[in-house]
Every structure is written in C-alpha cells, then in structure tokens.
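Action item from last meeting closed. Structure (201 res):
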C-alpha cells in the first residue's frame, strides 16, 4: 500500500500535467489535426514544460536553491514557480494560437494563472499541493471538453477523479501536505480553468 500511494506522486507529477492535458485533447477532439502537427505540438510542450524544468531543477539543486524535486520547503518553490510561469507564457505566445487551438490556448492560460496564484501564496509563506493543483486542472479541462464537443467522456472523467483521490491520499500519506493544503491546491487548479470557460466554451 505504501508503494501504491507513493507512485501517484510520480505518475501525476505537476510537470507532467500540461503534457497530459494536451495529449488527452488530441485524443478527444473530433476536429481533424494533421498527425505531424500533433507530434510537433506534443514535442514542444514536452520540451518546454518537462525537459527544461528538469534541467533547470538540477541546476538549482547544484546551486543549493532547492533540495529535492518535491519542493517540500515553501521558500524553495519561489524560483521554480517563477521559471515555470515564464515557460508557460512562452507556450501561450509561441505554441498555441487562440484562433487555431482555442481550447489548448486557454488551458495553458489557466495553468499559468494557477502557477502565478501558487507563486503569490509562496510570498505569504502559504504552501499548497502542486500535485493536486495539476491533476485538478486537467480534470476540469476534460469536463469542459466533454461539454464543448458534446462527447461522453464519463469514463475518462471518473478515472481522473480517482486520480485526484489517489494523489490526495499519496500526499497525505507521505505527510507532504495536510488537508487545507490539498484542498487549496485543488481549487487553485480548478478555478482558473472554470473562469476561463467563458472565453471558449
């Protein structure tokens, strides 16, 4: 059980959530998208939101700015969240066009607002679950896609809600977060995505 709970922190790491949301969109969308374009977009998202942050993490670790990939101390989150916000802004400006990929464009705008909110909370020494924030944002996005495309995605949505519970249990089990931090992380992930539905749903 210990291993089962701990593995959720790696399967649903916050750095993987933008890529997961993008991947699910391309699986679900009824619109025709050129396979080469899909591949290019996924590679771009993987490089910007996953590869660059990982390289940056090892640099920050060598500089003693962070101690672990879990960013357990509140003060350690400041620089990584700043860098992540800049990278998300890069995706919004360079990768997804609001006219061609409006759903993904606002999905990443929502992620950016979540990251900025988490960063602001850091300045007030408030720690939230970034894992919960990430999976909750993807869940809200998938629910919106189901309504937007009028497609029954109940199975996917149920699986993501199970993933939310799995992540929450994992973070509590490892004592990485308490209940308020989990709940706050959930709403920081969901609310920006929900608000931005007004622009594309």
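Sequence:
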């Amino acid at each position: 059980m210990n291993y089962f709970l701990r593995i959720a922190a790696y399967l649903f790491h916050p750095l993987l959530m933008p890529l997961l949301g993008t991947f699910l969109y391309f699986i679900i969308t009824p619109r025709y998208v050129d396979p080469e374009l899909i591949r290019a977009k996924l590679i771009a998202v993987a490089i910007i939101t996953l590869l660059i942050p990982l390289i940056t993490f090892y640099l920050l670790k060598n500089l003693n700015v962070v101690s672990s990939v879990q960013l357990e101390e509140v003060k350690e989150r400041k620089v990584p969240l700043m860098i992540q916000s800049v990278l998300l802004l890069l995706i919004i400006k360079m990768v997804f066009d609001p006219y061609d990929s409006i759903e993904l464009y606002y999905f990443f705008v929502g992620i950016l607002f979540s990251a900025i909110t988490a960063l602001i909370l850091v300045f007030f020494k408030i720690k939230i679950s970034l894992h919960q924030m990430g999976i909750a944002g993807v869940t809200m996005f998938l629910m919106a896609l189901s309504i937007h495309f009028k497609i029954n995605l109940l199975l996917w949505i149920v699986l993501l809600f199970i993933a939310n519970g799995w992540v929450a249990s994992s973070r509590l089990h490892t004592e990485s977060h308490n209940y308020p931090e989990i709940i706050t992380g959930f709403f920081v992930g969901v609310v920006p995505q929900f608000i931005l539905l007004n622009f594309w749903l």
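Note appended to the action item: Residues 10 and 16 are 9 Å apart (CA to CA).
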